[in-house]
Amino acid sequence: MKNDKEFDVFTYLGNDVVLSQRQIAEELRISVGSVNFAIKALIEKGWVKASNFSKSSNRSGYLYQLTPSGLKAKLKLTHSFMLRKQREYEALKSQLSELEEQLKASEND
Hints:
Helix 2 (21-28) crosses helix 3. The protein is built from four helices and three strands; from the N terminus they run αβααββα. It has helices at residues 4-12, 21-28, 32-44, 68-108; strands at 18-19, 48-52, 62-66. A three-stranded antiparallel β-sheet has the order 1-3-2. The protein has a single domain, classed as Orthogonal Bundle (Arc Repressor Mutant, subunit A).
């Protein structure tokens, strides 16, 4: 994944709900252009397919479905994302401990 926005869109898709890109953007609090770019990239990778429902009252809505390769990719990317966030958490936790020690040392001076 190129960025977190693309990952967010990818993890949001596949819920078998007919949505417009505008609705997805509002839900994820990102721009419609970012959603469009991410969906196009995911379709090109073969991870997502889009079906338009002409009979739907929401004519701009699409059903975005994850393909079998998309499901595998989603699991792998989610695992990588979790590991990255865990490393970031551990680094932040270490920095906070160091700052607390510095603060205690400065109070004792």
